[in-house]
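Bench notes, afternoon.
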Amino acid sequence: MALPIDFTTLRTPCYVFDEAELRRNFADFRRALAAHWSPRSNVAYSVKTNPLPWVLEVAREEGCYAEVVSNEEYARALVCGFPPEQIVFNGPIKGREWLFYALEAGSYVNLDSQRELTWTCEYAATGKRARVGLRANILLEKHCPGETLSDDRHGRFGFSYEGGELARALEALRAAENVEVRGLHMHVTTLSRSQKVYRTLADFAAEIIRGYGLELDWFDIGGGFYGGGPANEGAYDEYVRTIREAIGDACDPARTELLVEPGGAVVCTPGYYAGRVIDVKDIVDEHYVVTELSRINIDHEMKKTSYVHEMLTDATESLPRQIICGYTCMDSDRLFTAVDEPALSPGDMVVIRYAGAYSLSFTPQFFIEYPPAVYSVADGVATLRREPWDEQPPRS
């Protein structure tokens, strides 16, 4: 696939976002929802995945909601133009005042902790209506072994359905005046991102809805999807069809809004991470290529060993093995090993694809260099979205 711009014209190191592909991803997921669920559905973009204000503004312009999991993310969504009624407030760390604000302003609020139950009842006791959802915890690993990020027992979020905690939370809310349970949240992060996971989540959702007689305004299946870009065409449709088939007649798509919370599934493929080669050298039998890039800017957990990438070079000869390294003083800052690829020289460039998700939000402030610049590209024209920080040497 062709690159969206001549990367050699940009100040490096940098992140680059293909605006057209990002907009297509948002629009295509929304189209799949409308086609296979109903127009009462929407994408709630996961702000934590990449909180760059420009990304949030594109999501809003494409008709998406914002999904937030903290007071800070809620505030950023407001600053980026999302009205409160288009913000989905999730997670177990909501602050009391922000929870009250979200309830008052008409946000989608999915409760995820005991203190939030208490606060919701306190809010409703003042005579104000509290419309909330509950996050259900199910033993997903038991039903989809090896496909979740939790241990061999269970995840730690939400209210346990099998353990009875969900029933107790629902009972407490139903006993409170002015509280209405109108939503169900089923998010579980997975390794596999398989259709089986979402079918299982929707199956349990149907059981919960029927078992507790819930009448939902919204059903939030959560995130954790894959998709985006030409290579994953049709992925969004498959997910929504699976969810719709599994939920059956437990809720009416014409009345209940389906919410999905994609992050990487929409923002990963439009992103690139680019930097120039600084130096090359041989140490005994290894050839090292030092770049402006760093593993800490794209793989904070130091787990990956390969990336889809491009080498921008005029080299006509190849080398059997080159270790592509980052700029930090950590010996572990080795991004990948290039095998039988063009021999890189100082000034050449390495461009890593699919770098749009978490790369910005997970980049630690490891004080060797400042964070990279960020560009967006539309119709071959680059626009600087985050200024690169810089330090100049003192004048003599």
